[in-house]
Prior knowledge:
By secondary structure, the chain is of the alpha+beta class. It has helices at residues 3-8, 11-16, 46-62, 97-110; strands at residues 19-20, 26-31, 70-81, 89-94, 113-122, 128-140.
Amino acid sequence: xxxxxxxxxxxxxxxxxxxxxxxxxxxxxxxxxxxxxxxxxxxxxxxxxxxxxxxxxxxxxxxxxxxxxxxxxxxxxxxxxxxxxxxxxxxxxxxxxxxxxxxxxxxxxxxxxxxxxxxxxxxxxxxxxxxxxxxxxxxxxxxxxxxxxxxxxxx
Length: 155
């Protein structure tokens, strides 16, 4: 499943109107600047910035296991807010090649693995507004399998 299609299936993300620019190892997720996403001082709310960062990180982690055969579950995150954002922002997520290979190998051997994803969120002037590290669990199941919630067969 393409990342764009996966994002479209997540009801929470429709509230934010996040959009993806591409599929691949380096993902870019855009968050338009809208009144509904602003805080009390007229800039993007910290929660909205976190959402676009986590969406990019989760999408990057999703791409590690072929065929969408793993649930991607956030275990922890660390973010640093660097400046206010008063324009559309773009989150860029990357998984180091060695980390992706290790996570895939562990998943294929034991049906579970963990991976860390680095994210940077940039404003329209390409200034960093957020940096983060997201730690995910990759577990059996997924959106393209017959498994329902919690990895059980649907039906």
